[in-house]
Recover the amino acids of this structure.
């Protein structure tokens, strides 16, 4: 199933993907990653044959398969819909763990996402599915702004809610361990769709998000 999704042309482009890089066209190449990490170690001046590094290319190849597993998934794979006709009010899941990698430096950015929506037609999803939706997009080389938009667009497309809000707060290691070196600085991004754009509704959502 995973292979079938990733052949050329198998995935129809959508608005949410418009700003995204093209999807992978082949299967995960563990041997290619292993080779690349070996060469990378040589290039930075290390000895890939010394004790501590001998298994590093293999380990990185295995861990990248997990870290970038979202490249092989679509939001539809995790965001299943169920019906609960009684519920029409906002559903908000706060502090969903985000573990992603910035695509400019391939170092982690980590933090939390808050994901909310107002159901329409009784269409809801399991609360844990919102966390898995975040993972689908986080487990790709990313920029935080695009990830935030992709989560909101996927919610709107699949659940067709009356509105959606996604707020992401992350610390970027590329900012704290290199370059401008600003540890602790957090980047906050948001994407708001549908009825949640209404000032009163948006204010209600934001007050729930900032409440500790
Ligand atoms: Zn970066």
């Amino acid at each position: 199933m995973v292979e079938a999704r990733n052949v050329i042309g198998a995935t129809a482009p959508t608005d949410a993907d418009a700003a995204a890089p093209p999807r992978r066209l082949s299967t995960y190449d563990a041997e290619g990653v292993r080779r690349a990490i070996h060469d990378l170690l040589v290039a930075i001046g290390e000895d890939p044959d010394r004790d501590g590094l001998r298994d590093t290319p293999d380990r990185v190849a295995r861990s990248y398969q997990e870290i970038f597993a979202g490249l092989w998934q679509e939001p539809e794979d995790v965001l299943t819909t169920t019906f609960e006709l009684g519920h029409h009010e906002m559903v908000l899941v706060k502090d969903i763990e985000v573990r992603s990698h910035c695509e400019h430096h391939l170092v982690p950015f980590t933090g939390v996402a808050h994901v909310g929506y107002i159901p329409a037609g009784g269409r809801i999803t399991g609360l844990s599915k919102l966390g898995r939706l975040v993972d689908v997009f986080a487990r790709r080389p990313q920029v935080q702004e695009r990830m935030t938009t992709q989560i909101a667009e996927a919610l709107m497309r699949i659940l067709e809610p009356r509105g959606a809000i996604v707020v992401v707060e992350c610390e970027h290691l590329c900012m704290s361990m290199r370059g401008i070196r600003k540890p602790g600085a957090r980047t906050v991004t948001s994407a708001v769709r549908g009825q949640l754009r209404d000032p009163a509704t948006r204010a209600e959502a934001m007050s729930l998000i900032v409440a500790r």
In short: Strands lie at 82-83, 91-102, 108-118, 123-124, 141-142, 163-172, 187-194. Residues 1-19 have pLDDT under 50 and may be disordered. The radius of gyration is 19 Å.
